[in-house]
Amino acid sequence: MGVVDELRGRLRAEQVLTDDATREAYAHDDAEWAPYAPPAAVVLAETLDDVVATVEVANATGTPIVPRGAGTGLSGGANAIAGCILLSLERMTRIVEVDVDERFVVAEAGVLNDDLRRHVATHGLWYPPDPASQAISTIGGNVATNAGGICCVKYGVTTDYVMGLTVVLADGRVARIGRSTAKGVTGYDLTSLVVGSEGTLAIVVEARLKLLPLSGREDRVVVGTFSSLTDAGRAVAAIARDGIVPAALELVDATCLRAVNAWQGLGIPDDAAAMLLARVDETGQAGEALADRVAAHLAAADASGIERASDPDEIDRLFRARRLAYPALERLGPVLTEDICVPRMQVPEMLARIERIAAEADVTIANIAHAGDGNLHPLIVVAADDAEARARAKVAFDRIVDECQALGGTATGEHGVGLLKLDAAAVEITGVERELHAAVKHAFDPRGLLNPGKAIPV
């Protein structure tokens, strides 16, 4: 029997899809720039047993298996390879448990980030990790890439909230790793190994996630408009040097601002080269004093305008340009999304280098950034069906990574290595460290069937 027949023997027929349209639709995530090929079959898992059955078939037939959530990844981590099983967990959407006293939630891999956040909010609790794709990305995908987000500068990224996982190993065995207590150091930290491993070590089917109280914060926003991108970068460095840890510190450059303005008519000044959005959430007079310090740093970096707000609707208005930047740019053409992270003091220099690369490669590069932790997202926009522009974009993409690493940064802050950053990962992971990575991969997946060719250099 072939792999498709084996799958149909273990699962319902409507869970194993082989028509050309479905195979093509599931062949890649949002990183169409990375290689992909239609899978042999798409499996729509609904239960843990479905995942186990699929992995057992893959193991028995020697078939590679590529796990996928909602397909919102930006590095090709969920891109299919020819002949593989594409295992989708998007139907696994149960929120199994909310423990209010111990402050955790147990959720299946296919639960959307926003849905989980709304659900726990009804219990007076908060799940902080907030990737830009929070409305459409899944918890399993967030775990796979160790997703960050706007508030991670203060509250941390996905791994800081993963207490435990239920995973399926490469041979079909189920492992329940981690803990349900606030602290615990028994044994190796297998949970942290799996978080961020992009489906190359195990398939996450369920996560136990730490929660925080929903109350106890008062949002205040300070927004500075700048006539120079590097001036905005200087403000970022000054805020960090002062020891301020904002709840968010986001940068949006002129290209993004113009795209959003043209689309939504937000009334942003035409001469704005960049906008820096800072949010602090300390309560009472402490919060007001912190907002004052942030505003002083924006002014010292030559902000041409400063706005402040504490009303939720006004805060939402001020952050609108940041939230709409990516979809506004997509209206202009295909976007090749970067994800680099540099030391905070190097943000101004990295922004200057990105500007030079854009001019030298003759490409349009827009910049949005989680500037408070040095995580920059240069967005390279090209005209549709322009092969020469795509080639120049890839050159710029690689040069940005090179410059980032030259400044002591890392090639990916939150999107993952996937396929697009394999060469860059090979620069950062060398020698003994690469041997350790290979040994971990072999221990979890000795036959190399789980998402092969992704995440780590070989």
TrEMBL record:
InterPro entries: FAD-bd_oxidored_4_C, FAD-bd_PCMH, FAD-bd_PCMH-like_sf, FAD-bd_PCMH_sub2, FAD-linked_Oxase-like_C, FAD-linked_OxidoTrans_Type4, Oxid_FAD_bind_N, Vanillyl_alc_oxidase_C-sub2. Keywords: FAD, Flavoprotein, Oxidoreductase. Its cofactor is FAD. It comes from the Bacteria. Residues 35-214 form the FAD-binding PCMH-type domain. The keyword Flavoprotein applies. This is FAD-linked oxidase C-terminal domain-containing protein.
